[in-house]
Specification:
Number of domains: 1
Strand content: 15-25%
Number of strands: 18
CATH class: Alpha Beta
Shape: globular
Largest sheet: 10 strands, antiparallel
């Protein structure tokens, strides 16, 4: 049972890995639409798709009598509140492996969706549907979340039902390594938002945002970018943050109970009457950590969450960008960002969804900083020098980002152009 702060600290310490054992895990979410009428798929269609994917060696995951996901080895496909789907990939050694995994998964997904007349949309925000047009599903926790989340964040339902992101899981080799990496990933969130912006169209119109998804997440319960994250946040201070963070829900004997009026430390102190004051297990802690929706968060690894979902052309660019910085060039990157003012970072964070590269940070625009960080990432991947069968290292996956910077046009800019020319929604399909 988890009753002491020291146990949470030990939980984070258990994630420490030797540098030679560093892995990368990618999670990416996709929207699914019926191609006859441009509506989001309902749960019946999800079941058809999951059943069809079984032919590729996937195994069903059930909650009561409802299929809510699939697994194959260490990979999982999970169901999001508005029937978005998310692939949680295996922890792999390099971008070559991770990118291959992602493409294999999407190939399988495409074979199935074509047969079922379903279109995949790889954007950060649903470009078509109004919130009341998005079907839900019977996954038990989502009913409670739909009720509680809007109480503390006006865009929470939009986050649940109309956003898709790409997440990246990164390891650390010590507490000091975590401190550096966590400060880096939080400091560069504005640059990440601008560089990976891909959610400009909302309800078939130009939203005047480049990353509408990020705007939504800034106004979501349990989300944002806390000022605390810019300090030298160590395992102890993050444990204190976790203990003093409200609980979203507690799973107890197959029933989900609202935790809204409790902090996690109340749980640790046996003060939750609804569950007969039982104490939290490590699984309860893991669930709690996964329901803190900040731009980055700590589990037994660092989870990076500031990137919009994107299509095949940039699928591997985000993971490569971060891997070059965090696995190949931490110290140089940390020296760059260590002097940045946290208030200026937060101001840039608030501006970036709308202004993109034109956002100012420390006297320069985000295009400048994106170019600077891309150079640092390229250097880091060159330092790693991990070669594929064609004799190319991981820098090949940065080409998409280099084009964005050279042309000063993000995926969101291209989306606006393509849609504005003819308002053809087919232009938005992956």
């Amino acid at each position: 049972m988890i009753t002491k702060k020291e146990q949470i600290i030990e939980y984070f310490k258990s994630g420490v890995k030797h540098t030679t054992n560093f892995k990368i895990g990618i999670e990416h979410e996709k929207f699914l639409f019926n191609n006859q009428n441009n509506t989001r798929v309902n749960y019946k269609r999800i079941k058809e798709m999951f059943t069809a994917l079984l032919e590729f060696g996937w195994n069903p995951i059930y909650e009561k009598d409802n299929i809510i996901g699939l697994n194959k080895g260490k990979k999982n496909i999970t169901l999001e509140p508005g029937n978005q789907i998310e692939l949680s990939g295996e922890k792999l050694n390099n971008i070559h492996e991770a990118c291959s995994e992602s493409h294999d998964y999407l190939f399988e997904l495409r074979q199935v969706t074509k047969k079922l007349n379903i279109n995949i949309v790889s954007t950060g925000f649903d470009p078509i549907s109004k919130i009341n047009e998005v079907p839900n599903n019977p996954k038990l926790r989502y009913k409670l979340m739909t009720k509680d989340m809007p109480l503390d964040g006006k865009s929470s339902l939009d986050m649940m039902y109309r956003t898709c992101g790409t997440q990246l899981n990164i390891d650390y080799n010590s507490e000091e390594d975590f401190i550096k990496k966590f400060k880096i990933v939080n400091s560069i969130v504005p640059i990440s938002i601008a560089l990976f912006a891909n959610s400009s169209i909302v309800e078939k119109k130009n939203s005047n945002y480049l990353s509408y998804r990020s705007k939504v997440w800034q106004n979501t319960s349990r989300g944002g970018l806390p000022k605390l994250f810019f300090d030298r946040l160590n395992f102890e201070s993050y444990a204190e943050f976790v203990m003093n963070f409200p609980i979203l829900f507690i799973e107890n004997k197959g029933v989900y109970i609202s935790g809204r009026k409790y902090l996690f430390k109340d749980f640790m102190n046996g003060k939750i009457d609804e569950i007969s004051n039982r104490l939290p297990t490590e699984r309860d802690l893991s669930i709690h950590l996964s329901t803190i929706f900040t731009e980055n968060r700590l589990k037994k690894y660092i989870e990076i969450r500031s990137m919009d979902t994107c299509g095949w052309d940039c699928l591997c660019s985000g993971p490569a960008f971060y891997m070059g910085i965090l696995y190949g060039n931490v110290d140089e990157t940390y020296n760059l960002i260590s002097q940045w003012d946290k208030n200026k970072i937060i101001n840039a964070y608030l501006d970036a969804p709308r202004k993109g590269f034109n956002t100012q940070l420390m006297g320069k625009d985000l295009l400048f900083w994106a170019s600077t960080l891309l150079d640092l990432s390229k250097k880091g991947l060159e330092n790693r020098d991990i070669i594929n069968r064609q004799g190319k290292n991981e820098t090949l996956f940065l080409k998409h980002l280099q084009r964005i910077i050279d042309n000063k046009k993000t995926n969101a800019d291209h989306m606006i152009t393509r849609f504005s020319e003819n308002e053809d929604l087919n232009e938005l399909y992956d």
